[in-house]
Design brief:
The complex is a heterotrimer of chains A (205), B (434) and C (307).
Chain A (H helix, E strand, L loop, with lengths): L22 E4 L1 H21 L9 E5 L4 H16 L4 E4 L9 H4 L18 E9 L3 H13 L4 E9 L11 E5 L6 E6 L1 H4 L3 E6 L4
Parallel strand pairs in A: 2-3, 2-4, 4-5, 5-6
Antiparallel strand pairs in A: 1-8, 7-8
Chain B lengths: L3 E8 L5 E6 L2 E6 L8 E4 L4 E4 L1 E6 L12 H10 L2 E6 L10 H14 L3 E4 L15 H6 L6 E2 L9 H10 L6 E4 L12 E2 L2 H6 L3 E2 L1 H18 L3 E3 L5 H12 L4 E5 L1 H5 L21 H12 L5 E2 L28 H10 L6 H15 L22 E11 L18 E11 L2 E5 L2 E2 L2
Parallel strand pairs in B: 1-4, 1-5, 6-7, 7-8, 9-10, 10-13, 11-12, 13-14, 14-15
Antiparallel strand pairs in B: 1-2, 2-3, 5-16, 16-17, 17-18, 18-19
Helix pairs in contact in B: 1-2, 4-6, 6-7, 7-9
Chain C lengths: L12 H18 L14 E6 L4 H13 L3 E6 L11 H10 L4 E6 L4 H8 L3 E7 L5 H15 L6 E5 L6 H12 L3 E5 L15 E3 L2 H4 L5 E4 L15 H8 L3 H5 L6 E3 L12 H4 L6 H20 L6
Parallel strand pairs in C: 1-2, 1-3, 3-4, 5-6, 5-8, 6-7, 8-9
The chains are: A alpha/beta (205), B alpha/beta (434), C alpha/beta (307).
Chain lengths: 205, 434, 307
């Protein structure tokens, strides 16, 4: 992504903006719409890229926990809008994290790749919140061990700013300038029983 | 020679009196004593006991002076309230000749803190093959009466029989380390639930009991005098009770650690708890306390066994067995026997002074007698104890050259405030005078 | 998880399950990959401190650590400062001064890893101590059983052979009990410890009676030297009464498996046709050992700052 030739998506975060007050950032009713819009952007971008990669080459790889169902939803919407079946999968990044010493061990999550693999394909990593960028970096490292995609892009539901690495999302559901003391929590029905995105005050875990 | 006037002490924990010590003897016992020349020791609230006698001490000299010397061991003994200790024979060279026992005896005299009474080896080099020159040791300046291969068992039954017979000639006693060696090859701890789980080779109670059973039969048969070292099992107590009931001349000792600690201590694999015989079960501990209370076990003996750091800070199996005991022996007896009411102070004095002195034949030596009662005219060997004091054991503060105390970090009752050997203070205000 | 893995009792049911689940995830993550390496423990140092020769266990730990990108130092007691009389404590402090984050220790003395754990700040993993425990072997055995049978709860495991001298047996008894399996020890009475009655197991002297009721038969190595100390009269008699041969294997339930921690004495406790049968998991156990040890190293070291 760092080398993406595309311009920054519209509505990129303006970090000078004031932090939003705590509360519901995206209610359930809007979340589906946000995902739909991201699906449309994906279809549009792939079609207009001018490369020989088409939607059939697309693989949506979710970063657990909530990136995984998000990737499946996006894949389903892309298929609904374009009529082309799209592969989805997950990649667990736990063993690639660089903050294990700081944050302690956690249980591993599954890595599931489409049977066709990822070699030569267009992989779009999907995560719920883009923050420091370290999860994405870990995911890129994991992908490198799993195969050699033709290109890798990034889709996130919420970009909350405060990047610590030169990483930028290609598809953003919503840009939310936040303060570091705030938390952005994405809830999805598959994991949490409800669809919503919340902003809360308080220390990051 | 200093004259001491001890005021307000309670002999055997009974009514407070004054004691005047002069010329090595207890000159007077009574209320309101005074003496212009005497140095006054205020013993208000303290219990006075006869000087303690240990039947079983390892002083390590000659051979392992890095672990203990006669002098450092004597100091630890005096600080523990002892006025006499029996120095075990497993030194290097082994105390199996008149020359070695006299050397130990001389070193003890030079240190001058307790009477160091050498124990002679039963067999040459502790090898269990042929008798050492027991008579020569008995006739030497060291006047040996207790013979032991402690550390090794005299396992050959014919040799043990001969030893029990032979020592009758000079009223000696064979102190047996009861351990059937074929049953304890490689043994590391008490054989039971814990050894099974910890994967440490077991030391079965039967290995001790089998030897005791054999030896009391032999002692009864030949009419010799048998003493059983560091009895550690309930079964041993039963055997001793049976033998005494039959009139066998057998006596026995128990260590402070076997009265307090159990094989649970091995759970940490810290070899400070490795000892031979091993720490046993709670049931054994209770049987030993009862045996000591009813006199089946005659004496408390420390088996004070100093070891250099490198011999203990290692893997359990590589470590040497044994633990320090001199300075905490009385405290452990106070905790395990006095406080639960199993013995009163007279009982404590009997098991830690009178009986061990009698077993070692130290009670009839005139002015040099040990284990005599607190009474006018007796040698002034006594100890003043503060029974109310409680403190946490700090191995670094012990007088021994070694640090392998199993009581480290444990709070124990009682403190030796002063010890007198034939009228001279060896300990005052809880500190050794030299 | 505790900082050290010294014995099976260090793992409660949750911890033990976490290790097995993590191993399974690692297996899946690495399955079919060309690059069987993860960056997880980059910059960490794992020391294999082996006072006993055990090539297979050392290699298994070495591979596990290397697949997690840790630096690995193999320190064999032979030909080192240890053979010149250096104490375990001095060796431990030296290794720690060199910056080791974990020490994997194999030692002939029971409890040596416990001692080590008191002297170092890093993690200590017991790779077998005397006749005490070998917890990672038990973990890989449990992992193998779960993979083959799909569960551990209620699985009936017969552990057969020299229980008295076996650290594998002790660890398996503890871990399998924690995980809900039912263990029966089968051995001549001389090869069961006094005190086995306090273990959470059934005990039998009759292999033929136990086999039909077993889902797993775990054969222990029996050293022929034991007969010199009269633990049993002869290798032949031992093999006849407690060896697993083809006729005995035939009475096992259809999906029952046969395990052995290795190295095997073919013809003594296990017949060649049993060892090589489809029921045998012996080769599988070796492979699972690497995954399980990766899981252990990850869980002990991954989030355990030693600085």
């Amino acid at each position: 992504m760092a080398g993406s030739p595309e311009p920054a998506p519209r509505g990129a975060p303006s970090f000078g903006a004031p932090s939003p007050p705590g509360g519901v950032l995206i209610p359930a009713a809007d979340l589906a719409r946000v995902v739909d819009r991201m699906a449309h952007q994906l279809i549009e971008r792939v079609a207009s890229s001018g490369s020989d990669l088409g939607l059939a080459d697309l693989v949506l790889i979710g970063i657990p926990t909530r990136g995984a169902p998000l990737a499946r939803r996006l894949a389903a919407r892309v298929e609904a809008f374009s009529g082309t079946a799209v592969d989805a999968g997950t990649v667990d990044i736990t063993l690639y994290r660089d903050d294990l010493r700081l944050r302690g061990v956690r249980a591993l999550e599954s890595t599931v790749l489409p049977t066709a693999g990822i070699d030569g394909r267009l992989v779009v990593l999907v995560d719920d919140v883009l923050y420091s960028g370290r999860s994405v970096r870990a995911a890129l490292d994991a992908l490198r061990d799993l195969g050699r995609p033709r290109a890798v892009q990034l889709a996130v539901l919420v970009d909350r700013g405060h990047r610590e690495l030169p990483i930028r999302a290609d598809y953003v559901g919503k840009n939310v300038p936040t303060s570091r003391s705030q938390q952005v929590r994405v809830h999805l029905t598959e994991v949490d029983g409800v669809d919503e995105v919340l902003v809360t005050e308080g220390e990051q875990l | 020679m200093t004259t001491y006037l001890i005021t307000g002490a309670r002999p055997y924990g009974e009514a407070a009196v004054d004691l005047l010590l002069a010329d090595g003897r207890i000159a007077e016992v009574g209320a309101g004593l005074s003496s212009a020349a005497a140095e006054v020791v205020d013993a208000g609230g303290l219990v006075a006991l006869p000087g303690l006698v240990d039947l079983h001490t390892h002083l390590r000299e000659p051979g392992r002076e890095d672990a203990e010397t006669v002098e450092t061991g004597s100091r630890a003994a005096a600080l523990g309230g002892f006025t006499a200790v029996h120095a075990m024979a497993n030194t290097d060279p082994v105390a199996d000749t008149a020359g070695v026992v006299e050397q130990v005896w001389r070193l003890g005299t030079q240190a001058g803190l307790v009477d160091v009474v050498p124990v002679g080896a039963v067999t040459v080099g502790l090898r269990g093959e042929r008798l050492a020159e027991l008579g020569a040791m008995a006739d030497s300046a060291a006047r040996v009466r207790v013979f032991s291969d402690d550390g090794s068992c005299v396992s050959d039954p014919a040799l043990m029989r001969r030893a029990l017979e032979y020592v009758k000639a000079f009223d000696g006693v064979v102190a047996q380390h009861a351990e059937e060696p074929r049953l304890t090859a490689g043994a590391q701890m008490h054989e039971g639930d814990r050894s099974a789980r910890l994967g440490l080779t077991g030391w079965p109670a039967a290995a001790e009991e089998a030897i005791i059973a054999r030896d009391v039969l032999l002692a009864g048969h030949v009419g010799g005098r048998l003493h059983v070292c560091h009895v550690s099992t309930a079964g041993s107590v039963e055997l001793l009770r049976w033998a005494k009931g039959r009139g066998v001349q057998v006596t026995a000792e128990v260590t402070p650690h076997h009265l307090l600690l159990t094989d649970e201590c091995a759970e940490t694999y810290d070899p400070v708890f490795k000892v031979n015989p091993p720490l046993r079960t709670t049931a054994d501990v209770h049987a030993l306390r009862e045996g000591l209370a009813d006199g089946t076990i005659d004496a408390v003996a420390t088996d004070h066994a100093p070891h250099a750091v490198e011999d203990k800070e290692s893997e359990w199996a590589q470590a040497r067995p044994g633990m320090l005991g001199l300075q905490q022996a009385l405290s452990v007896v106070v905790q395990t026997m006095l406080e639960p009411g199993l013995l009163d102070w007279r009982g404590v004095a009997d098991r830690m002074s009178a009986r061990p002195a009698a077993i070692g034949r130290l009670a009839g030596l005139g002015a040099r007698s040990q284990g005599r009662p607190l009474a006018a005219g007796q040698p002034a060997n006594l100890v003043l104890v503060d029974p109310a004091h409680r403190s946490v054991v700090d191995p670094a503060a012990l007088a021994s050259r070694s640090r392998n105390s199993p009581y480290a970090g444990r709070e124990l009752p009682g403190r030796v405030v002063a010890t007198f050997l034939r009228g001279e203070a060896t300990v005052l205000d809880g500190k050794a005078v030299k | 998880m505790k900082r050290h893995l010294l014995e099976a009792a260090d793992l409660d049911r949750g911890d033990a399950t976490l290790v097995l689940d993590t191993a399974a995830q690692i297996d899946t993550a690495l399955a079919g990959r060309e690059v069987k390496k993860l960056p997880t423990l980059r910059g960490r140092t794992v020391v294999n401190l082996f006072y006993e020769d055990s090539t297979r266990t050392r290699i298994s730990f070495e591979l596990a650590a290397k697949r997690l990108s840790a630096d690995v130092i193999n320190f064999s007691a032979k030909g080192s400062s240890v053979s010149k009389g250096e104490s375990l404590k001095d060796t431990a402090l030296t290794l720690e001064a060199m910056g080791s984050d974990a020490i994997v220790v194999r030692h002939s003395a029971s409890g040596a890893p416990h001692r080590l754990a008191r002297w170092v700040r890093g993690s200590v993993v017991n790779a077998g101590d005397g006749t005490h425990e070998h917890p990672t072997q038990a973990l890989l055995d449990a992992y193998t059983i779960r993979r083959r049978l799909g569960r551990l709860e209620g699985v009936r495991v017969a552990i057969v052979g020299d229980v008295l001298h076996s650290r594998v047996a002790r660890s398996n008894v503890g871990l399998l009990h924690t995980l809900g399996a039912e263990v029966t020890l089968v051995a001549p009475p001389t090869l069961l410890p006094v005190g086995v009655g306090s273990w959470p197991v059934s005990v039998s002297y009759d292999l033929d009676a136990v086999l039909p009721k077993s889902d797993v038969v775990m054969m222990l190595r029996v050293q022929a030297e034991r007969m010199n100390a009269s633990f049993f009269p002869s290798a032949r008699e031992y093999s006849r009464r407690y060896g697993l041969d083809a006729p005995r294997m035939a009475v096992l339930a259809d999906d029952a498996i046969v395990m052995h921690p290795g190295p095997m004495n073919r013809g003594m406790e296990i017949a060649a046709e049993v060892a090589d049968s489809v029921r045998s998991t012996i080769v599988e156990q070796v492979g699972n050992g690497v995954s399980v040890r990766m899981a252990v190293l990850y869980l002990l070291l991954g989030g355990n700052p030693t600085a």
